[in-house]
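To whoever is on call:

I kicked off a structure prediction for a single chain this morning and the downstream step that reads the tokens threw a length-mismatch warning. I double-checked the sequence; it's 424 residues and nothing unusual in it as far as I can see. Pasting both halves so you can look.
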Amino acid sequence: MMTTSTPKGFRLHIGIFGRRNVGKSSLLNAITRQNVSIVSEFAGTTTDPVEKPMELLPLGPVLFIDTAGIDDVGALGELRVNKTRQVFDRTDLGVIVAEPTVWSDFEERIVEELTRRQIHVIVVFNKCDEATPDAAVVERLSARKIPMVRTAAVAGQGILDVRQALLDNAPADFVNNPRILADIVGPGEMAVLVVPIDKEAPKGRLILPQVQAIRDLLDGDACCMVVKERELPHALDRLNKPPKLVVTDSQAFLKVAADTPNDIMLTSFSILFARFKGDLIAQVEGALAVDSLVAGDRILVAEACSHHPIGEDIGRVKIPRWLTQYVGGTLEFVTVQGHDFPDDLSPYKLIIHCGACMWNRREMLSRIMRCRQAGKPITNYGLVIAHSLGILERALQPFPVALEAFCRARASGATASRQVQGQP
């Protein structure tokens, strides 16, 4: 049974790459058993990445991304190539489609790019009803332990072999996806989720991280209580046993921290997603870069999804306000949305990212890697809010390894500051 109800961020992202007119779209249509992509005898029919969510049993929910041919030329071709390159950032499993007798540096570069990113690669030789794959190429790929499949997609030949290869090569971090919070709370224990109902809360619904947190607790056999921030003290008083964890929307951090006894662990949805979708320790270290900001510094705020900002938008209004107060001077904020991200990060002193609840973990990790390569710190909404409000150490108590990294980095920063000032 196929379903499209699973959010994209929980799907295995399978990128399909190759030259124009090698049969990528035909292959996708054959795998999904639907006419998802336009098939034509003319090269370059696919102009933008085409996404197809489906249930690939027994693996589960996946998202196929059929890319435009990246050997394109001309102005329009360059736009297609740029769109295709963005797909690398969110690919968990790469499929390279090639004709049996055509394999050159072009295909090798795709293999190298995917391998460099530690993305599993499958090579599909399509149109094998017309020719046989070159023996020397097959031998080289075999020596590198790259799985190969032979297909004739239009005729439906070899499609089951492709599906099996996808199942066999799915990355372990998808199969063994990290938990959101159930591992912290534990079976039979209670978590209290503080959910403000404000202008950004969708009418009649909870936002995605809140829904996903509730489901994760249920899957982990834990108990859950959901309250608004004003009701938290009353809710805690009604419990005959303290909850294991209180989770709040980051915007209500100060009030919830004041109302939560110190012997109860506290964190935010955004910080939970910094671990669930990315690298928590790297983003904790990035939060400490706030201490080195000075007036006039430029900060990049990255929102994973496109939305219409309201008057008190967290990324465009509240975080800039809190950071400006913390630094004591005017800072310059630049906002990007969706998959757009600057190639040149040199103008920015800090990158602040949302929780990326709509993304898969691979794309968020790719962004973190890009920031590291550029030597730029990256952090998360919840982490930077907690730090600017002076409660980051408490917000990290549910994550002992991250808390240790925070204390170590903070001590290292204090030592460096004393050395600069000539103090012992």
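Update from on-call: the warning came from a stale cache, not from the record. Cleared it. Sanity check on the structure: Confidence is low (pLDDT under 50) at residues 37-47, 73-77, 415-422.
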